[in-house]
Write a structure and sequence with these properties.
11% helix
Length: 66
């Protein structure tokens, strides 16, 4: 189990990849961007990026409007 931060909240996870965490938290709906430890990560890389202790993940949802 790893201790990580997602959008400023600390949590423990047994998931192995960033994509699995984002999916589990329901943050992968619609248009979104993911930053890991301050670096913007392409969506195509999220399923290859392994969770590490202390990792900080920020997920931003795009919201349309007019």
């Amino acid at each position: 189990m790893s201790n990580i931060s997602v959008n400023g909240k600390n949590l423990q996870t047994t998931h192995q990849t960033v994509q699995m965490v984002v999916n589990e938290l329901g943050l992968s709906k619609g248009r979104y961007a993911v930053e890991v430890d301050g670096d913007l990560i392409p969506k195509s890389e999220l399923d290859k990026m392994h969770i590490v202790e202390g990792m900080s993940i920020e997920v931003v949802q795009a919201v349309g409007g007019g």
